[in-house]
Predict the 3D structure of the following.
Amino acid sequence: MIEVRWHGRGGQGAVTSVELLAVSAIAAGKYAQGFPSFGPERRGAPVAAFTRVDSQKINKRSGIYKPDVVLVLDASLIGLVNVTEGLKPEGKLIVNTHKTPDEIRKQLDFKGTVATVDGTGIARKEMGVPIANTTMIGALLKVTGMLELDAMKEAVEHRFGRIAQKNLAAMKRAYDEIKISN
Amino acid sequence: MGKRMGMEVAMAVAEAVGLCNIDMAAVYPITPQSHIAEHLSDLVANGEIDAEFVTVESEHSAMSAVIGASGTGARSYTATSSQGLMLMHELLPIASAMRLPICMAIANRAVSGPLNILNDHTDIMPQRDSGWISMFVENGQEAIDMSIIAFKIAEHKDVMLPVNINIDGFQLTHMVEPFEMPTQEEVNQFLPPFVPHATLHPAKPVTMGAFAMSDYFAEIMKAKDEALKNSKKVILDVWDDWAKIFGRTYKPVETYMADDAEILMLTMGSMGETAQVAIDELRAKGIKAGLVKLRLWRPFPLEEIKAVLKNTKKLIVTDRAISFGGPGGPVFSEIKSALYAEAQRPLIYNYIYGLGGRDVPVPDFVGMFEKVLADTAGKLADSYEFWGVRE
């Protein structure tokens, strides 16, 4: 089972991303859960969202405290939120930033895999908006291999209709451009 | 064959209700039920289902509206949570006394105060004695299945009682997870049209919910009690009908690794699956632990409970509600009372946990088992403890 914790701010679409990812993983024949951090949410405030994916039925319904992967949608949260809290030492940290993985590694003193991509820049170029939630799904899939990129197509098309292709293009670019440091 | 898919459970519940050919729904939105209200309203507004969606100004009005509509013979649905359910409270016994087969989802949430929007069972427990059939689900699939099954049970001529389906708020309602969504053809095959016993109609006047003083009131209460107790037979039959079409079997009391267990835990709702993970861990350590999941709360499955608990030495009853100043949690009190006359009874322990959305991860379940196993003298039995509470 892979457990992922997403960090973002209210309004940046972390919950949409965990939903799209879970729906796509399930459509691909896997078992998955996608859920928000329960409770009230305010635009701009730090929020978390969660994904579990497994090849077998998932019985655990409690929170995720020791994630395998942490994905940071908004690098301004680093320092504000302890994004590596509970992250397994051999785990993977993915950050939406123009910085290099080594810069992030140094900043957070994390020994596992660190991967970075300028998701916001890609989103701006591909979609004309600085919202990187779908873009960063591409980064996550590249780093974890939890699902094929093509598996996202149906859920993204269903959700976004005429702007779906732009989302998929941004996702593909993040998949191709992410820099990974093991 | 239904389609395997992923969706947020609250929306899936609305989709399932949408397959049931309802005539009307009156749903006042409240967290964490809101996505049921919103999505059902969408289905009606988009013309996907042919029903009236009555917008109301409160849950009291929502329940009043479904009572009125059900009285006319309309298949009626509502859903609520927490304070909304508390506001409906005075109408709930009226719906059951009038023998109206209303179906209601409860996205269980803590009752104020202090204000808390997260999950526990403090909203449903005060409704225990309102004369409704009351069941709990532990995952999205069960939430979907019971949402459809409820109509067939409620409307059966030998039942004619309202049903509430308890779906843990957030833990279930806000979870995107896999399930099989039945097809319209399958639901049509399973669920016959509603044939009401009597209907309110100006051309053929009848009285419902009439006045009764001491000369008749007790008889009416006894009739209601009998009706609720007798509904169990129909519930079992309807679950059998469901299994024949959909292949998923339901029982009033489910067990997991309980046959040879020396220590059992009893859960209700979404905690059951996480507790199962704890049982697996304990079994791996050689501890004969097992799980009992109470699905049917009313009518209380007395015989089934006695049968599954008859050989266990120790039983941990978990509660997600409190009876302040009482002998223990509401589920604990009922289980204890059910076993009192048995010649062979387990020591019964009670943990109150998961209040107001407090997470209960696997190590907490393991911890409860370990604490009870360590209590060799049975000193902690027959009393309750707030698990993990800071003092």
